[in-house]
Amino acid sequence: MARKFFVGGNWKCNGTQEEVKKIVSTLNAGEVPSEDVVEVVVSPPFVFLPLVKTSLRPDFHVAAQNCWVKKGGAFTGEVSAEMLVNLGIPWVIIGHSERRLILKESNEFVGDKVAYALTQGLKVIACIGETLEQREAGSTMEVVAEQTKAIAAKISNWTDVVLAYEPVWAIGTGKVATPAQAQEVHFELRKWLQANVSPEVAASTRIIYGGSVTAANCKELAAQPDVDGFLVGGASLKPEFIDIIKSAEVKKNA
Ligand SMILES: O=C(CO)COP(=O)(O)O
């Protein structure tokens, strides 16, 4: 089964209403390949979700950047999966390294969140990735396999999951993984899925790369056989996000 190229824009904790309107109008005017070729999802902060949802072109979709681990209730400051569904938000990013590292979200907590979000009908961009220290210690595969295992242990259906490999050392640093480095980990992750989940899930699950992706480096990365798209931070706030979406053409012509 062909894996449709996927480009996500993670706006993180950025933007004012005015800036959000500007980004949306740039996106709405962008000429990009059709929905058959590329799936585009942008993820504004919670407070801007309704604004973006109602003003964004219909071929682009919206994701929240997080949601609560179970049914909503007395959890001050949290936003539940049910609320996202109620607002018609189809996607959620879970387990971003900024949440894992700064807010101390464990592998198990992330696995529980992914599982709960899926039960509510959300589609999930599940993030994994090693720190520089872990890479230098040679434990990259061990780390990402553990992170993936904690998710795999809690879910049985991968149809609505996109796995985002985001090496922490590449996030916001301008130090992008080389195409070979990204391909190596994506290939190993697919092998892990094949051995530990199923050959079907390994073949059909999109594994996207994130970490200092720009218009300048996206094509070479997109050309790697196991790179099925991107999760873009900083560059997703800029007009060059359109060029990154266009890198889907590299796959189409492969
Ligand atoms: O964390 C990221 C996307 O989730 C990547 O961020 P940058 O593209 O800014 O490095």
UniProtKB/TrEMBL annotation:
It holds the Pfam family TIM. GO terms for cellular component: cytosol. Belongs to the triosephosphate isomerase family. Homodimer. NCBIfam families: tim. Its main location: cytoplasm. GO terms for molecular function: triose-phosphate isomerase activity. SUPFAM superfamilies: Triosephosphate isomerase (TIM). It is found in: Cytoplasm. Pathway: Carbohydrate degradation; glycolysis; D-glyceraldehyde 3-phosphate from glycerone phosphate: step 1/1; Carbohydrate biosynthesis; gluconeogenesis. It catalyses: D-glyceraldehyde 3-phosphate = dihydroxyacetone phosphate. Gene3D superfamilies: Aldolase class I. It comes from the Eukaryota. This is Triosephosphate isomerase, cytosolic. GO terms for biological process: gluconeogenesis; glyceraldehyde-3-phosphate biosynthetic process; glycerol catabolic process; glycolytic process. Its EC number is 5.3.1.1. Keywords: Cytoplasm, Gluconeogenesis, Glycolysis, Isomerase. It comes from Hibiscus syriacus (Rose of Sharon). It is an enzyme of class 5 (isomerase).
